[in-house]
Amino acid sequence: MSQICLARVTYGSHLFGTNNEKSDLDIKSVMVPSVREILLGEVNWSRAIDADYSRANTADDVDDERHDLLRFMHLLAAGQPMALEMLFAPDHLHLVDPDPI
Q: Which of 22, 25, 30, 95 has the most beta carbons within 10 angstroms of its beta carbon?
């Protein structure tokens, strides 16, 4: 069984309304780890997918960061702005319908 996406939100300049034609796309997701990851104790992670930190981003780039549910809950409990901003992102910036969980 693969990971389940609980929420996938457009983030960064698009969330704050400061994007322009040169802005990259930032996406943040909250995932339920796979059964394999849970059984092997590979939870409590944050991952950047296909990130290239060797250069500055361009308008063609997509920064895709995924957090497992446990990590996301820790970020919320700590009052981390990123987690709170995801929680209260407007509906039109959700790339998938939020899971009822």
A: 30
Which among 58, 53, 46, 55 is positioned nearest to 21, based on CA atoms? 58
Q: What end-to-end distance do the CA atoms of the chain give, in Å? A: 18
Please report the pLDDT score of residue 53 as a whole number. 72
Task: Give the HSE-up count for residue 57: Cα atoms under 13 Å, Cβ half-sphere.
Answer: 16
Residues 97 and 62: beta-carbon distance below 8 Å: no
What whole-number distance in Å separates Cα of residue 62 and Cα of residue 49? 9
Q: Report how far Cα 84 is from the mean position of its chain's Cα atoms.
A: 12
Q: What is the mean pLDDT of each run of 10 residues along the chain (101 residues)?
A: 87 94 93 90 81 77 89 95 95 90 73
Q: Of 10, 14, 5, nearest to 98 (Cα)?
A: 5
